[in-house]
Write a structure and sequence with these properties.
The structure is a homotetramer of 357-residue chains. The first copy, chain A, is globular, with a radius of gyration of 21 Å. Helix content of chain A is 25%, strand content 23%. The first copy, chain A, has a 5-stranded antiparallel sheet, covered by helices on one side. In chain A, strands 9-8-10-16-11 form a 5-stranded antiparallel sheet. In chain A, a hairpin with a 4-residue loop joins strand 1 (4-5) and strand 2 (10-14). Chain A has helices at 37-47, 107-113, 131-147, 174-181, 193-205, 233-241, 263-266, 337-356, and strands at residues 4-5, 10-14, 21-27, 65-68, 70-71, 74-75, 80-85, 151-159, 162-163, 212-219, 247-252, 270-273, 276-279, 287-288, 291-292, 297-303, 313-317, 322-326. The first copy, chain A, has 357 residues and is of the alpha+beta class. The first copy, chain A, is built from 8 helices and 18 strands. Chains B and D meet through loops of B and loops of D. Strand 11 of chain A pairs antiparallel with strand 11 (247-252) of chain B, so a sheet runs across the interface.
C-alpha cells in the first residue's frame, strides 16, 4: 500500500504535479447518491490557488472530469474515478531540483527511495497539488455525510502567532460550521483575520512563509462509530491527516494540553441533555477508546510554513556530494493554511464516512 | 479490521482486561532471528505495574508464553503468537460500570457500539493492559531493529507542568537513547525527576491523576524508508500511537511549534557531514513527505491523565437515563506516563520495522 | 499479509504442528452472539483425527480454549481468540525431514523461503492440523450464518474413482444439507460409501493414499451479497479454499464442465417461483459477476491424495545436494477427504459471513 | 475493498463498459523501469476485439493514455494510472436490460445489490471490457517479470470438446511460452486450431456461444516465492483469476485429476538436475503449501460460454415480477476464450509480480 486509504471505502490518489493528470478513485461509495456538482465545485474552489494575495499565482481550473462511477448523475456502485488535467505547468522551473534538494520538501528522501527515478518536477507525487483529488473525494464524502446528519467544518485556528477563537467544543452546531466555511477567510473571530493576513503578507514581503493550525470539527457522528485500537477514529483520522503535505502534528480535543491537566479536569462528566447522554465538557474531542461518544469531534492539525521560499537556502549537490546554496523559483504560497482548511475537512470527511459505512 | 495493524508485518492484538488471557500475533517477522528472552523480559518489566509509588498496585507477572512462531528459540517464518495469562483480576470492582460509564473511559461508546454486549470488566478490550502484548511484539521489533542498526528510545518529556530537556534532534546517539531507557525514571535531565514525581504524588494524594508527554526518537533509519501519502511514516506511526490508550496528540519534529515558525526557520538546510547528506536542524523530525531523510526520527505523544480517579464524578445510569455520581474503585495509576514510555517505544518500533521490511 | 484473511471479518491463524499450541483470532464478529459450545465441539469432532480406519491414529482432544472475545458466553465485540494445545506430538518422527524434503509437502519451498529456519516438525505451519483452528472460526461462522437463514453443508463428491450423487443445484434445502453433514461418512448416495471406503482401505493396505473431491453448498444467501471483481464471492471463497492444505482445484456450479457447454445450455434462465426471482438451472453455482443471485451457492474442491505415504520415495539431501530415497514415518491419513468435509464447510462459511457483514 | 487487489502491488481497476473511460491504477511498481510501449500495445492487441470472425465486431482502439506514474518514460515510484477512452459505445442496445436481466450476466445480482442504481449499459462495471485495463497493468507486469527471469504464457487448452496438447509440465521453456503467445490462434498443437475454430463458427451460426479452458504457465519463479495460507500463490492467483468475467474454475497442476490419483502417483519426487533441486513430475503445478518450488507454475482456468447469445431466452421483468423472454442484441463474441488468453496471462503476471516484490 502507499497511496491508498480506507477500509470500507478505498481511496486511491494518483498523479504528479506535472504529469498529464492527477486524480482519485473511490471504491465502496453507496450507490444511488446524486452528487451536487455545483456544491462540489464550490468546495474545490476553496482549495484552488490563485485566488488572492495569500496564495500562489499558479492558476488551475481544477475542474474534475468523472471517468466512471456515475450513472445518470448518481453513484452506481462501481468505483468512482475523477481526474483533473494538469495544464498550467512550468517544468523548467524545477530543472535544478533533481540534484539539489529543496529544504523541507520530499525531494531528497524521494531521490534516495527511488534511486533517482522519482519525478522531481513540481514535487512530483508529493506536491500539495495532490490535495485537489483528495478534495474531490472528500467533497463527495461531505455531501454523503450531510445526508446522514453529519456536518464538518474547519477554521484557521492560528497563523504565525495570531490565534482565532476556538470552536465551542460542547455546544457546536452544524450552522456554525457552515457559516465559517462560507467565509473567504475562515476564522471564527473576524478580528483575527486582519492580523493573520498581515503576518502572511509580512512573510511574503520577505520571500518567506508562515505556518499555522487548522481546527476541524464534526457534529452529528453518532456514539458508537469507530473501532477499537488501530482502527480507532483517532488512528484513522490521524493517518489521513498526516498524508496531507505539511501537517506535522495532530491532536484531538484538549490534545497536548491534557499533559498538564489533572484527571478531574480532563475527564468529561456525563450528563443527560434533552433525553440524551452528553458530556459537560469535551476534552476528549468526542472520541474515547477510538470510538465516538456522540459529542462533537474536534481535531487540530499543525501546518508547517510552506517550505518553498524565495530566500537563498543551504543545500547540497547530490551528484557531487558537496554543499551549495539554492534559491527556489516558481510560484508558491506564502502561507498554505487558508487553502489547507478545506483539505483538512475533506480528509476528516473521508475518514468518518469510511467509519460510518 | 480493527485490532490489526501493519503492511508487511501484521500485528493482531487480542484480549480483555479480565479475559483468561491477552496476547498478540505477529505475522511476517523475518525468519531466523533468535529472540533474547531476558532482554525482552527486562523491556516488559519497564511497563509492568506495581513497581513503585507512581503506579497501580495491581501486580501481574506479565510473562509471555510463546505459543508458536519459534523453532529452537528463533523465529521460523510462521506467525508468532504470545499470550499473557490474566491472573490477578478482581472483576467485582467493576460491577456497576456496565450501567454507569466512567468519564474519560471507553465504557459508554463501547456500550453503544456493541449494544450492551461489551465486556465492561476492567475496561475490557480498551484496557491499558492490552499494551502488554503490544510491548511483547514491540520488544521483539526493537531487537530486530537493533540488528539493522536502528536504536529507539523515549523519555518523559513532561508530567503535569514539569518539563524534561528535549532530545538533541540533530546529534542524537544510540548510546544516549540506551542510557535514558535504562533509568528507573527515564528523564534526560535528572533534575526533572523529583518535581515530576512530586506532581504525581500530589495528584495521588488527592485521589486524582496527572498527564504528560512522551518524546520518542529513532536513530539509524536510513533515508528512503517509508512510502508516500497514507503510508508515510507519520501516518503509520500516528495510527499505532493513537491506538495506545490515553494518547490524545502526536507531533513530529517541531510539530505544533511549526505553526508560529517562518519557513526560513522551519526548513532544515542540507549539509554534508562525514561524507553523508544530513540536515543542520531537524524541525521535520527526520521525515519529509512521509519518508525518512536519514536524520533522527522524533515524535512526541501527549498522554492524558489516567481517567480512573478516586474523586466522585458525575455520570449517568444508562438503563434509567438519569444522572448519578460515581466513585471509581479499583487500583489505578495516578500517572500512566512513566509506564507509557516503553509502550511508545514499542509502537514506534513496530511501525518502523514494518516500514523497513 | 499471509496467515490473515477477510475484509470485515479478520481471521488470523497461527501455530505449527508441534508448537505448544495452535489457534485463531477472529476480529469483527458481531457482538452479542451466544456460541453453542456443544454444537461447536460436535462440528470439530467431524474433523478430528483418530476416529476410524480411514484416518490417522494421532489422537488430539482438539478442545478449544477461548482466551478472549467472549463475555458471559457471548461475543463481546473484542477479537475472539481460541487456542488448542498440542499435546500428542512426536517430533522425533520428523528429524530427518529438515534435510530431506517429503515429496508433495511444503518442506522444500519452506526451507528455501525461510533459509532453513522453518519449523520442519510435523509440517510446521503447513500442517493439516492448522485446519483445526480454521474449523473453530468456521464453526462459529456457521452458527452465525444459521441465525441469518443460511445453511451450509458439504459431502464427499468423489474418492478415487468412486462418485457420489451431486447436490440438486436448484432445489436444495437446508434440511438436505443438515442431514448429510450428520452422517459419519457424508455422502448423498449411501451406496457410494462402501466402494469409497474400500478404495481408502486398498490404498492404506499398500501404504499409499487417495484423493477426492468435496462439494459444498450454501442455501439462503440473499441475492446481492458479494462485491465486484477481486472481492467477488468466487475470489473470496477460492482464496480461502486454496489456503486449505491439499486443495488443488476449485470450481463453481458447472465449473470446468462449462468449457464444453453452449451458452444456451450454460446460461441459467430466470423464472418466478413463489413470487421470487429464481433460475431454472444453476450452472453458475449461485454467483454471477462475483455476486450472489439468490440460488444455492455450489463449489467443489479437489483434494489431492495425502502426500505422506509409507512407500519409499525419491527425494534429495538439501545439505549434500544429492539424491536419496525417503520413507515417511509417522501416523498419516490414507485419505484426507472425509476429514476435509467440515474444513471446506468452515472455509466457505467464513468467506460468506465476511461478505454478509 | 472490491475492485482493488494485491499486497505490495496495489491494483485498482475502474470503469464501466459505457462510462467516459475505463482504467487502472497500479501502486507499488518498482521505480526506474522503462516500459516498452510497443510491446505493451502488441500485448493489448491480443485481447482487443474485432480482429476476426471469432470475436465481437465492436472495435476499440484500446490505446492506453498514461496519466501519471511515469517520468521520462520510466516508472517513477508514484502510482501509475492509465486510462482507455470508451468511444465506440451503443448504449441504446441495452435499454431494456435494466428491467429484464440477461441470463448468465451480473445484471440481476447487481440490480439487487445496488437497489437499481447500477449502470446497466453494456454490463457496467461487470463488462469484459474491464479486462482491458487489467491487461495494461498485466502487460507491464509481464515486462518486469521478464527482467527478473520469469516468462509467462498461455494457450487455448480446450474449446467446446476440442482439446489442445498440454504444456510439458516439467521441461517447459520460456521459448515455448513465447512462441505460443505469438500465434494468432494460440494452441500448442496446430492441428487443434481448425476444429476449435469450426466449433466457434458453428455456435456463431446458431446465434450461440461456446466455452473453453485456458492453460497458463510461468517459468523462472524461484523456489520460496509466495506465503503460507491465505497468501499462498494458489490463493492469490485464484483470487485474481476469478475476478476475470466468465472464469468458473481454477486448478493447479493436475488439479481435479488429483482426485483419482494415488499419493504415489501425485507426489512429485525430488531429483537433482544440473546441480539444482527439481521434481521429476509436476502434478502440484509448481506450488506446495502456497509457495513456489521452482518448477513451472501451471494453472488452468475454465471459461464459460459467452452469456450474451442471440437465441431467445427466458427471463423476467423485475419491475412487474413476471416472466418474459429476451433476445440479447448488440455485438458479442461467440467464444471469449481466444481473447481471454492474454487476460489470464496478465492476471497471473500481476499475482506473481506482487508475490515477488
Amino acid at each position: 500500500m502507499a497511496s491508498m486509504y480506507g477500509n470500507k471505502l478505498k481511496i486511491s490518489i494518483f498523479g504528479q504535479s506535472h504529469s498529464p493528470a492527477i486524480g482519485v478513485t473511490v471504491d465502496g461509495l453507496p450507490a444511488g447518491f446524486s452528487i451536487d456538482m455545483d456544491r462540489l465545485q464550490q468546495f474545490l474552489a476553496r482549495r484552488a490557488p490563485g485566488q488572492n494575495a495569500y496564495s500562489t499565482t499558479r492558476k488551475e481550473a481544477d475542474v474534475p472530469q468523472f471517468l466512471c462511477g456515475l450513472y445518470n448523475g448518481a453513484t452506481c456502485g462501481a468505483p468512482l474515478t475523477a481526474i483533473i488535467q494538469n495544464t498550467n505547468t512550468r517544468s523548467g522551473d524545477y530543472a535544478e531540483l533533481a540534484d539539489c534538494p529543496r529544504p523541507g520538501h520530499a525531494d531528497y528522501p524521494a531521490a534516495v527511495k527511488w534511486s533517482g527515478h522519482q519525478d522531481p518536477t513540481g514535487g512530483g507525487h508529493f506536491s500539495g497539488r495532490l490535495t485537489a483529488p483528495l478534495c474531490v473525494a472528500g467533497g463527495i464524502a461531505l455531501q454523503m455525510l450531510e445526508e446522514r446528519g453529519v456536518a464538518i467544518g474547519a477554521h484557521i485556528a492560528q497563523i504565525a502567532d495570531v490565534n482565532d477563537a476556538p470552536f465551542d467544543s460542547v455546544n457546536l452546531s452544524a450552522k456554525t460550521l457552515r457559516s465559517v466555511t462560507e467565509k473567504a477567510f475562515p476564522v471564527l473571530d473576524d478580528g483575527a483575520a486582519a492580523p493573520m493576513q498581515a503576518a502572511i503578507l509580512a512573510a511574503r514581503g520577505e520571500a518567506d512563509s508562515v505556518g499555522g493550525i487548522v481546527e476541524c470539527a464534526a457534529v452529528g457522528i453518532p456514539a458508537g462509530v469507530g473501532d477499537p485500537m488501530f482502527d480507532g477514529l483517532e488512528s484513522r483520522i490521524a493517518a489521513i491527516l498526516f498524508a496531507v503535505p505539511a501537517v506535522k502534528g495532530v491532536e484531538f480535543g484538549a490534545g497536548f494540553s491534557c499533559a498538564s491537566m489533572r484527571g478531574s479536569q480532563c475527564n468529561d462528566p456525563y450528563v443527560i441533555r434533552d433525553g440524551a447522554v452528553r458530556t459537560a465538557s469535551n476534552n476528549n474531542g468526542g472520541i474515547l477508546g477510538g470510538i465516538a461518544n456522540g459529542m462533537p469531534i474536534l481535531v487540530r492539525a499543525a501546518i508547517k510554513p510552506t517550505p518553498s521560499i524565495g530566500i537563498r537556502q543551504d543545500s547540497v549537490s547530490l551528484s557531487r556530494m558537496e554543499e551549495k546554496t539554492l534559491v527556489v523559483h516558481g510560484r508558491h504560497d506564502p502561507c498554505i493554511v487558508p487553502r489547507a482548511v478545506p483539505v483538512i475537512e475533506a480528509a476528516v470527511a473521508l475518514a468518518l464516512l469510511d467509519a460510518m459505512l
